[in-house]
């Protein structure tokens, strides 16, 4: 009997195992005293519960009695069809008899400490416990079982649910049937008894039970499961895991059990598609980590260390973290490796991690790079500076008579972009979406792009070839817009402590020409550092080290008039005069010179342009100075007195307390001089026409009269004339 | 984000760039547990940081057993000493809607606003003083109502009414995680009643009792991105820039944090 129970111990329902055991006992009992069973039922009329309770009593004395009800049970049981041997045992008659008989002897024979009540109350208790549901029934059975020997326990189990079935609820019968059935299915051999006992015809109840069970066993056409197995699985899981308030989450548990069926089979199929991007990016990043291993030679290693163009990104990241700004350590490390890859593949003099610009679909990681002397990469995409020369020149060839009116519109001269390495194009920028992905070089920026970028405000999508649809129309796509914003941010927010940079030696002074403006600086070798406290307290200790971008869109003023004067020879005199007038109006745009302290920056509606902070108030001796821009939210700079770094993390837009309003459309341009030739005349009104007609007729009449007086003889002619 | 998993959550949100410095992190870990004890909250969330000109506000919220009940909001300037903020009322929101610009960073700062009020004698200009604390309260309330996010299935509704954390929430699957409809606004539903009967038939009343992000106006005001391959889904609001929601699919980790200036991005329609 132990054999049966041990494998069954796992199951929530110990009934099957336990039910198995009574069968053995039944068979043993039946072999022992098949005949005494008939008489004894009479004694056992008291309570049905006496059956199980009988089991609880010490094995010997009730054993014989217990065997008798078992006998009774087996009797009818054996007569039933072999597939459902035990069900037959649940005929109402014998248990009813046993009920009465067993009640009293059971009470006396009881050794159980669990239910020291009268038989009937115990019966009720069982009823109630069974009413609560399968779980509680099995739980009580289990708990009770633990206090008993296993053999007794099993017998109790047999009768416990058996009691239940004899109450009116069909559900209980079903449950009991379920418990028994599982056992019977698994222990068919054991449960099969010799059909030597008297048979009782299957009653309505049995049929109902069987049909209900058959229904539960029906396989679902969709999933191949049946309710019977599913419920038993769910209960098994609940009893194994024992969650709190299981009744509240029973539906979720049921769902989990169902999903568990599928997990093993479709695991690879379902998850493969989803996990693919994860693996892809992991592969790419793995390549980053392995790139160092390709060059194993010592010489190359030394070379690398000597000519290190790579900045110490991790060190800067550490300082920025003190300020609460940063991308997380491992992400920063990957960016570091990606920068290394960049420096290895391109001839780069100096490189810097500029920052990260967030986009709607993807983000950009930006690296600021300076190429080595003479190794500038040519711009693959030449910006098409569209100079729409109007048709004035070509029309000059036409005949004057057929000439179309000439417009005075002259396309404003496109301002040429700055040369590489100067002004806004001082550095070259590379972007990538994620470390591990290839770096893409951004094209140089043109003044037109900067001017337009100042007028629009658009989110970046993350794809460099997205067109920018805006008013005023942006000359370029997202890569140009990105470059323009990067230029503006750099010009506005890249600062360094005063004295870190100094101007180079001046080579001749050009007073009027703006090109001679100081735009080169170099590191000051004698820089001694500034106290962190001073850096925080006063903004005049910080200076811009990137040239300010003028409203023209360039850093160095370009006078559009000068160049066009050369071309004026072809133009009409009229236009020369007009241009001559214009020359007087365009003033040279002046911006703050390089290395201006940031205390000179303009406020934005009473908001100071920069916020300074010590990184930590708790430990000021090791704190660093942190500068946060209010004009470009997301731009940060730190310094610990000797070192400094700039960083940007944000959406890439300027701050404005007012709403953005797109610029209004310009008024309709007057292209042609209005004059009699061009201007349409209004149709004359009726009065005017009549007046005109009257005037004409008067004139004709007067002419006729004149003619009449002169030529009286030619009346016939007059008639002709009329 | 839950104060219990503060460090992990901060690490996952670090893609947005603005987080907390180590000393703030350490102070938060300590002080939030004390706050939980003192105010007897069921859960404490670290809501985020509002950047002011002089100093920053650190905001935390405490929840009771019912997750959708009105929360108590606390603020601190140094992550150690927390002060309770009054609950937001509609008056406050209306009053502070006229204030523009950055937060000062000083809770007792008063904004001055001149209004024309009709008095008995005629129109007079009245200077109304609005405290920064009031503004703080209303901004936090607006942000919560507009963009606080929770994934579908993380909370469930019991028949008795209170909303509980769903202990069997295993996280969204990857395909669900990429759709905006699997995320809900973490507030009382506003548009749920307007759904057609057909739509309502598919909803599960115990899980779908909040508005989803799908129908937010303007469309496209959420940026949904996968980071680290498909291992992390990050939602960023474009309407209140600075709000980041993160969720690791197939795990219970989720949360949101706001680090920003506390100003709505009214230019959003131009920027899309």
From TrEMBL, chain A:
Name of this chain's protein: RSH4A protein
Species in which this protein is naturally found: Crocuta crocuta
Low complexity bias spans: 30-41, 52-65
Cellular compartments per GO CC: radial spoke
Biased composition (Acidic residues): 373-403, 565-586, 704-722
Listed Basic and acidic residues bias regions: 124-134
Subcellular localization: Cytoplasm, Cytoskeleton, Cilium axoneme
Region (Disordered): 1-148, 372-414, 564-586, 689-722
InterPro entries (alphabetical): Radial_spoke
Biological process per Gene Ontology, one example term: cilium movement involved in cell motility
Principal subcellular localisation of the protein: cytoplasm
Origin superkingdom: Eukaryota
Ranges that cross the membrane: none
Pfam families, per the entry: Radial_spoke
Keywords on record: Cell projection, Cilium, Cytoplasm, Cytoskeleton
Signal peptide as annotated in the record: none
Gene: Rsph4a
Phylogenetic placement of the source organism: Eukaryota, Metazoa, Chordata, Craniata, Vertebrata
Ranges of Polar residues composition bias in the record: 86-97, 136-148
